[in-house]
Design brief:
The chain is of the alpha+beta class and 305 residues long. The chain has one domain: Porin (Beta Barrel), CATH 2.40.160. Helix content is 18%, strand content 50%. The chain has 6 helices and 14 strands. It has helices at 2-18, 20-28, 32-35, 148-154, 274-277, 291-304, and strands spanning 54-62, 71-80, 84-95, 98-114, 117-132, 158-169, 172-178, 192-200, 207-218, 223-233, 237-244, 249-258, 262-271, 282-289. The chain has a 14-stranded antiparallel beta barrel with strand order 1-2-3-4-5-6-7-8-9-10-11-12-13-14.
């Protein structure tokens, strides 16, 4: 039985290092970064929500019964001040016996030209660590002390961060960023080294439509273009969709905004890539709270009573 577990561990290592499936997790990112929690997309968006302090929780997992399936969890908190914003981000990724954690502090600054025309700049810095989980390995002799696997487990964490600029011109958002400083320091994963995105909000009385394009260039030369958009109904219901060219996948989402003090979003993605689809589709949930808006609502109710 122990030998079987060890063999599964080594097979999991092989998948983690070379499979398109694991790479697709890196390419995809959280779906919520495109639509609701743009802090995940670019630090220039830190502290730009008019509702004050924003608390977001995001969770993503593959829809499969395979033990050790990829799972990602992230928490962000950010708030605006007069011409700048501050925020913090914590994330945890796990796939099989491999785990990665990240903690960042972020700051943004806004240069205003007019009320609907301004430039946002953001910078994040913090800590990132990848590690090999050996708690379910009963016979550690399967990992030679001088092997690359052992070296991977024993190495220390590294500096990480990201930077970005966003130009807002009326209903246009155009941005560029350096999303992964760790990509230049020896991480085993093929992280993106630069990105760019574009969105335009078409507004009407009851329905808003926002087309979105997102481009990524990766360390090993791969280029990915994601296309999609969001339909907003009465500022309450959101319908989202994106096509991810990296794994020929499509994601769809549904979101709800409750009086600007609580938001929740659900996403599900599927791929036509056989290697990826064998592991099942992926689902994601994002939940946000706005304490300032919640307190304002409570005080208003107390005054009415």
């Amino acid at each position: 039985m122990n030998m079987v577990k060890n063999k599964y561990f080594l097979f999991g290592l092989f998948l983690f290092l070379i499979s398109d499936f694991v790479q697709s997790q890196v390419y995809g990112g959280f779906a919520n970064q495109y639509f609701q929690n743009k802090y995940l997309l670019n630090p220039a968006y830190v502290g730009t929500d008019e509702n004050g302090l924003a608390l977001w929780m995001n969770y993503r997992s593959n829809n499969t019964d395979i033990e050790g399936k990829p799972q990602t969890f992230a928490i962000t908190a950010d708030m605006p001040f007069k011409n700048f914003g501050i925020g913090t981000l914590f994330s945890s990724d796990q796939s099989g016996n491999f785990s990665a954690v990240k903690f960042l502090g972020s700051m943004s600054y806004v240069v205003k030209f007019k009320r609907t025309k301004f430039l946002k700049m953001g910078l994040s810095a913090g800590y990132y660590k990848e590690r090999l989980l050996t708690n379910n390995i009963t016979d550690l002799s399967v990992i030679p002390s001088n092997s690359k696997i052992a070296d991977y487990s024993n190495r220390s964490g590294m500096f990480d961060g990201n930077a970005g600029i966003v130009l807002v011109y009326n209903n246009f958002d155009i941005g560029v960023g350096l999303p992964n400083f760790k990509a230049f320091q020896g991480s085993s994963l093929d992280f993106s080294i630069c990105n760019g995105f574009f969105s335009y909000k078409l507004e009407s009385q009851s329905v808003n439509l926002t087309p979105i394009a997102y481009y990524q260039l990766f360390k090993q030369g791969k280029q990915v273009l994601d296309l999609g958009g969001q339909v907003e109904l009465l500022n309450k219901l959101f319908l989202m969709g994106m096509f991810n060219t990296s794994v020929r996948g499509t994601l769809v989402g549904l979101g709800y905004n409750h009086i600007n003090n609580f938001k929740i979003s659900f996403y599900y993605s599927v791929s036509t890539d056989v290697a990826v689809n064998n592991f099942g589709g992926a689902f994601e949930i994002g939940v946000s709270l706005y304490p300032k808006a919640l307190l304002a609502k409570r005080y208003a109710e107390e005054e009415d009573n």
